[in-house]
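okkk here we go again. third time trying to get the zinc ion bound version out, last two times i messed up the smiles copy paste (missing a bracket lol). double checked this time i swear
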Amino acid sequence: MNAVRIHAAGAIDGLRYENCEEPQLERPTDVIVKLVATAVNRLDLELRAGANGRFSFPHILGCDGAGRIEAVGAEVGHLKPGDPVCVYPFVHCGSCQFCAVKEYDRCADRRILSQCEYGTYAEYITVPAKSCFPIPFGFSFEEAAAFPLVYTTAWRLMMTQGKLIPGEIVLIRGVGGGIATAACQIAASAGARIIVSSAKDEKLARAKALGFELAINDDAVDLAKEVRGLTAKHGVDLAVDCIGGADWGKSLACLARGGRLVTCGAIAGANPPTDLRRIFWNHLKICGATYPTRDEFRQVLKFFDYSGVKPIIDTVYALREAAQAHRRMEQRRHFGKIVLRTDG
Ligand SMILES: [Zn+2]
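finally!!
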C-alpha cells in the first residue's frame, strides 16, 4: 500500500510518500479499514519533530480517518466489508481499573492513535472494531475524517469540562485553529453568545464571514477591556484558550466572576505567568481536557446528525502532498481542517 512515513524525527522534508506492507488483522476483534481520507493535526507536527511519540521508525503518522471496512476479524459481528466508517482516534489498554468502568480518559496507557501504533496517513489501517463508528448523516469521507480529534476534544472541553449552558458568553481564542473552530460551531449550536479572538486580521475576517461577528484582534488591543465593553462589564462565562504562553493571563482577565477557563493546548508556551489572586478572588475554575471517551465521540456523532453542522474544511490535499499540508499548518495559514485524500 501507499503511505506517508517518517524514518527519523525531523523537519517536513522527512515525510516520505512510499510503498510499504499492508497491515494485517492482529486480533479477532480487529478490522482493517480502507481509508479514503485522513486529516492533519498539530499532534502530527509534534510527533514528526520528535515530541510525544512512543514508536520505532519507520512510522506512519495521522490519527483521524474515514473510509470503508475492508476485512473483519472472526469475532466482529456488527461490521462487514464495504461499511463506511469513521475512526475513534484514541487507544486505551482496556483492562485497567479505569477502563473496566469505562473511565478511559484516566487509563494509564491511554494514547492517541499514531503516538504508539501506526496512524492513518495510509491506504489501510488495522483498528479495534469498537473504534469504528458510522459516518454522520450526509457527511463526505473528507468531512468524516475532519472531525474526530478536534471536535471530540472541543466537545469534552466545552460540554463535559466547561459545562456550557445556553445563553452564556464564550470567548474562543486562536480562531482558525482546529479546536477553536470546532468550539465556535459547538458553542453556537448550544445557544451561547460567542466572542472570537486572533492575532491575525484575515482569520478574524473569515470568522466574521461565518457569522461570528464579535471578533477581536487580541494582539492590537487590550482584550479584557474590549471584552468588558462587549459584555456590559460582565466578562465571559467560559474561555477556550489552547494557546497558553504569555497571553494566557489575558484569557483569565476576560472571565466573569465564577467563570471557567478550559484548555487543551500550549502552542505559545506551557509555563504562563498567572496571577493566582485573580483566580481565588473571582472564584475561577480552570479545566483541562484530552482523551475524549467513546461516549463523547458518540455524543459528537449525534450532534452532527441532528444539528446540521459540518466541520469547516480549509484545504484538501492528496496524501502524497502531506508535506505541503504540514507546511500550511506550521505557517498557521489554515482556517479549519486540512484534509488528505488517500487516493492521490
Ligand atoms: Zn486502561
